[in-house]
């Protein structure tokens, strides 16, 4: 995966592939990582309804290499991610009001 990709394929623990839509990516200088928010294709993102949003750290691929998703490992990362998500949601609500 690269910054700016619109779709990613996620492989679950059973080896099943799921095509997902990228909602947005961001980088954290504090943790030295990039993160991606995404949701399964078919479960269209709608801020009015519950959509299961996933988040992972990722290492961008180089050249033709695929990037690699990684789990969030610390409570501090989750706190930072929650803050970014809340900011994103607030910006979406402001955009809807205009």
TrEMBL record:
<dbReference type="Pfam" id="PF06949">
    <property type="entry name" value="DUF1292"/>
</dbReference>
<protein>
    <recommendedName>
        <fullName>UPF0473 protein HNQ85_000045</fullName>
    </recommendedName>
</protein>
<comment type="similarity">
    <text>Belongs to the UPF0473 family.</text>
</comment>
<dbReference type="InterPro" id="IPR009711">
    <property type="entry name" value="UPF0473"/>
</dbReference>
């Amino acid at each position: 995966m690269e910054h700016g990709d619109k779709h990613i394929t996620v492989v679950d623990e059973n080896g099943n592939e799921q095509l997902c839509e990228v909602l947005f990516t961001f980088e954290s200088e504090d943790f030295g990582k990039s993160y991606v928010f995404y949701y399964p294709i078919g479960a269209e993102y709608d801020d009015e309804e519950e959509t299961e949003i996933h988040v992972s750290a990722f290492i961008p691929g180089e050249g033709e290499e695929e990037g690699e998703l990684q789990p969030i490992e610390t409570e501090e990362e989750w706190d930072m991610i929650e803050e970014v998500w809340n900011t994103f949601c607030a910006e979406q609500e402001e955009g809807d009001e205009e």
